[in-house]
Amino acid sequence: MLALAAVVIWFAMAPDESSDRSSDIASALSDYELNEARTEGAPQQQVVNGWVAKDLLTVIAQQQNDSVTDERLPALAVLVVLGLALHIATSMRPTTPDGVVTAPVAPAANPSPEPASAL
User: Where is the composition biased (Low complexity) (predicted)?
Assistant: First the structure.
C-alpha cells in the first residue's frame, strides 16, 4: 500500500516544466551586438555592457520567479515515517504471562562443561 502511494506521489506531484527563456536570452544578446557595433569609446561600451547585464539579469529573475519547487521528497519522507510507525506498532514483542514486555534473553555462549566421568 505504501509502495503504491509512493509511486502515485512521484508521478502525480511532479513539478510543471518551467518555460524556456532561450528567446529572451537571444534577444538580449542580439540587442547587445547591435548596440556594441555603434559604440565609440569606453564610456559607450560600458553603457551597452550595463544594458545587456540588466537584460540578462531580468531573464534570470524571471526564471527564478517561474521555478517550481519539488514537493515529492517531503511527501515521500512522510510515507517513510508512516511506514516505520506502522512497522513498530504491528511488530510482535515477547511478553511474560502477566503482560509485562521483556527483553529477549541470549543463550550462554559457552556452557560449562560437564564433569568428566570417572573410569
Answer: 95-109
> DSSP per residue over 56-77, as a string?
HHHHHHHHHHH-----HHHHHH
17 assigned to some structural domain: no
| Residue 54 belongs to a domain | yes
Residue 79: what are its φ and ψ, rounded to 5°? -65, -40
Query: Per-residue pLDDT for the chain (119 aa), expressed as one digit of tens each?
Result: 888 888 888 888 877 766 778 888 999 999 999 999 999 999 999 999 999 999 999 999 988 877 667 788 888 999 999 999 988 888 877 666 666 666 666 666 665 666 655 55
Any residues with CB less than 8 A from the CB of 17 and at least 6 apart, and which?
none
- Distance between CA atoms of 100 and 26, rounded to whole angstroms? 74
